[in-house]
Every structure is written in structure tokens, then in C-alpha cells.
Amino acid sequence: MERITIDIVSDIVCPWCYLGKARLELAIADVQDEIGVDINWRPYRLNPEHPPEGVDHQKHLAEKLGGKDAVERSHGMLTKLGEEVGIRYNFEAIKIGPNTLDAHRLLHWALMEGREAQDRVASALFKANFEEGRNVGDHAVLADIAEACGLDRKVIENLLRTDADKDTVLSEIDAAQKMGVNGVPFFIIDGQYAVSGAQTPEVLSNALREIAKLKGEARKSMI
Question: Which helix (H) or strand (E) holds 99?
Fold first, then answer.
């Protein structure tokens, strides 16, 4: 069985990233008997200018998308797409548009515990923001999520009070942008193949199969 690593460049306040995550999980389930997949979550910030306390989300979105009607159209489409993959978007519940730097720091620390821990935290962050309307820029919310995902709450609380790993996260974002990532989600497969956007499960599973085939052929040619 071939093994593939996927680095997912995303922001946890990006609705398309949440959709992309769910679709990728369906694709992985489709190929699980053929291909092993390891996932790393990589940071990106859609709104780096947001202050630490966040902004009025609904107002910001209306300004960004061109009015309330445009927001409602976008949310209506995303809600339908989400329902297809088990996501219950609750856009009206989102009051605060957070600065996500600290959420990305939490994901960075979770990876130190292992990929499964990081994936649990990513899932919890997306759900907290999009389904529960919780402020994922708030340290108490981040500590709650960390604890629920099996991380040491006190350690996370102490780290959040410091600037620990802010530079690391920001340098990762900078590296992704220099690599050409200007929108998310962005999937980097085995460090050399790229898939941009929240593609359908079929597109993703086909890509995984094709890359696994190329990887197998490359290895055979070296023998």
C-alpha cells in the first residue's frame, strides 16, 4: 500500500476549508483499502488585519462580499453543499470575526502531540466557529477546545499568554504565499503536487489514486 502525505493550507474561519476537509475525508474513506494518508494542517490567515479582539463578523462580511444579499446568496449555497457532507453551517450564529493567529498556534502545538491530535483540534475549531458560533480567537474557547481534544489545558493557557511560536506560524504563512498559495483550501500532496479549492470527493480520490500510481511506478523504476 502506498502512503501519501497531504499538507492542507487553510484558515479555520474559511467555510470552503471546512467543506474541503469534509470532502477530503470522504475521498480518503474511498481509497482507504488502497492508499494510506497522513494529514498535516498548515496555517493561512484570510484576515490578518483583524485585531486580537476580532471584528463584527456580519458587518465585515457584508463589506467584503458587497452587501447583505451577496452574503445570503453565498451562505445559502454553502449551507446546501455542507449538508451533502454532514456540515451544519450556522452562519447567523457567528458574531465575531476573529484574528486566527492563536488558533493556528494551537494547531501547531497539537501537531507536537501527533497528527491525530492536530486533526481533532482542526475539526473542533471548524465546528466551534461554523456550527456553534464560538469565538475561536478567544483564549478561553481555545483552552476549552484543547482540553476537549486531549491536550493539557494548563500548558495551552500558559502558552497562549506568551508570544510562543507566533513567528513560526507567520513564517509558515509567508512561505506558503511565496510558493504561490493565495487562496485556501490548498492541498499539497507529497510535497510536489497541488490541488486548489474545495474539490469534490471524486476529484480528490482520483488525484490520490493517480499520485499513488505515479509513486509506485517511480519506486519500481529505481529497483
Answer: none
